[in-house]
Amino acid sequence: MDDNLLHDVVAAARKAGADAAEAVFAERQSLSVSVRLGELEEVEREEARDLGLRVFIGQRSATVSGSDISSEARAKLVERAVAMARLAPEDPYASLAPQDRLAHGPFPDLDLIDAYEPSAQTLETQARIAEEHARAVKGVTNSDGGSATWSSSRWALVTSDGFHGAHAATGHSISASAIAGEGAGMERGGEGRSTRHFGDLPAAGDIGMEAGRQAVARLNPRKIASTTAPVIFENRLAMSLIGPLLGAISGPSIARGTSFLKDKLGQAIFAKGVNLLEDPHRVRGLGSAPFDDEGVATQARALIEDGVLTTWLLNTSAAKQLGLATTGHASRGLAGPSGVSAHNLTLQPGAQDLKGLMQDAGTGLVVTSMFGPSLNGNTGDWSVGCSGYWFENGESTGPVTEITVAGNLIDIYARLVPGSDLEFRGASNSPSLLVDALAIAGK
């Protein structure tokens, strides 16, 4: 789509009676191939183009979207948006982002686009290699398949305040899922990786072997008695422990007063030395963006610095409610109001690798999978189902399952110790994390 059409849509909205307007265009293509037991299972191609429009009339606003971008459809989109805005309730905090916070080009080159577009045959070959290597691991008895995917996306924003920006990215991914054991003793394991450039992916065979290894490592688990003991969250899933923090420091949660961290800004909530960094401009980053979804410039910052909470995650609306400035964390789809999200988070590593954390802890649990988390957003009380392996004297004594760990996140964060085994696997990354004592519910 020609970005001039976005300017035309915004101009048409102003002409129809809107005081301000913003138009968004999102375009996506993807190709995915999956195999199972050596047979081609699915080839899926997706192409989508969508247009969104948000208009403001006084303190009223409305958002509409559609996939038909013909001139007739655009005219109806404008007409509908303006009519809806006239009927909407007043919202004193709804507006475009302040002009002095907007990003201005030229935007940094983040190297998010890979010119290489694999064929369906290439993706099938990658998926087959991943599955074959998973099935070849000793102890693997079945397969949930292998898959490989390519995608390309572009997102453009134009506002009546003069902002015009677009960013695009490609994605490549390979995954495999293996089954070990028989009957009621079957265990599953999986591995997958995603990157912006095809050349940055690990070898498909390595991904498959890790999926098989994960499945076999979970065979013959035992149940353990309920206890309180040190718990280590493996680096593959450790960011799941940090995820509730982001919701708790989101501007909308703070404005509503529904966050367990609502009184903690500027206070130490982690131990000294713990740092959670955000880098929106990481080259080839899965969470990189030169501006947020309201056109506000993104910037690197420490959300947690030496244990201290330094900022809320603010979009324009939440910032207005709190009497603060937007921090460039707006996140929105084509319809509906903005939420918030962060870009490329990294919990900085500590001194000990996973083995060192286990030796320091002595006896406890290493969590390797998590499911069904439960959080009371007002109090921070948190629990999650999990499985993993038990260790004694710093050495694994075998897999364990049907466990729930629980605690209060304010208490957990204060005692959390990062390991040194940081790997960049996604948009948010963490080393393994040790909590010196958590309630463990077992048999």
The H-and-E topology, N to C, reads as HEEEHHEEEHEHHEEEHEEEHEEEHEEE
Q: Uncertain spans, ≥5 residues at pLDDT below 50?
A: none
Oligomerization category of the chains in this entry: single chain
Proportion in helices: 10-25%
Number of strands: 19
Structural class: alpha+beta
* Number of helical regions: 9
Instruction: Kindly report the spatial arrangement of strands forming the biggest sheet.
Output: 3-2-1-4-5-6
Rounded average pLDDT: 96
Shape: globular
Radius of gyration of CA atoms, rounded to a whole number: 24 Å
Please give the domain count. Answer: 2
Family: Belongs to the peptidase U62 family.
Protein name: Zn-dependent protease family protein
Domain Metalloprotease TldD/E N-terminal: 21-85
Organism: Caulobacter vibrioides (strain NA1000 / CB15N) (Caulobacter crescentus)
Written account of the structure:
The protein is an alpha+beta fold. It folds into two domains: 3-217, PmbA/TldD fold (2-Layer Sandwich); 221-443, no CATH class. 22% of the residues lie in helices and 37% in strands. The chain is built from nine helices and 19 strands. It has helices at residues 3-15, 71-87, 120-135, 204-217, 239-248, 251-256, 316-322, 354-361, 409-415, and strands spanning 20-36, 39-57, 60-66, 140-159, 164-180, 187-195, 227-233, 276-278, 301-305, 308-309, 330-331, 339-340, 345-347, 364-375, 381-392, 395-408, 416-418, 428-429, 433-441. The strands form four sheets. The protein has a six-stranded antiparallel sheet. A five-stranded mixed beta barrel has the order 7-14-15-16-19. A five-stranded mixed sheet has the order 10-9-8-13-18, with no helix packed on it. Helix 3 packs parallel to helix 4 (204-217). The longest helix is centred in the first third of the chain and has 17 residues, at 71-87.
